[in-house]
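sorry for the late reply, my laptop died twice this morning and i had to redo everyting from scratch. anyway the thing you sent over, i finally got around to it. pasting the sequence first so we're on the same page, its 159 residues, then the predicted structure underneath. double check i copied it right bc i was rushing
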Amino acid sequence: MPYFVSRQCYWPDGRNVVEVASGGLDYANPDMLVAKYPRLGEGETYKDPREAVQVAIAVARAWRLDSGKKIAIGTGCTMGFTMPFEASSQKEALAWADRAYEKLPKCDGCEGVMGKESWSADDWSGEEFCSDRCVTKAMEFNEAEEAKIRAQEMEMEES
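ok and here's the structure:
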């Protein structure tokens, strides 16, 4: 699941929030401001919610320094509707990100977060990989392990 980071000025109360929207850009609230901190990662989509929250914290700090106003962090999903997120502390946002990360599917090779696409090395193992690179590494590892087993079997037959 993608996570989108944006600055928001919620209507009608005018709260300033750095939002981490589960589901990506299409699930962010419509009160999004033009990206002012793209070098920090604002306006970007992330596979890992922990990275998205770290970016949101950095953007909130920069915005607070520039504006002198209180800036909140909000996490959630609009499901395509308008639904301002509840403000949370940095600690709460980080805890939310950890919980969200634990639920995400992981690559059987590198244990990274899976993206939209997945690869498999075969039809019977059920393993899914995040990239063809991880498939190749897994296949090379399996071939090396099989070669070791064959070598051990040959040694046992000879003795």
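Residues 105-159 form one domain.
thats about all i looked at so far, will dig more tmrw
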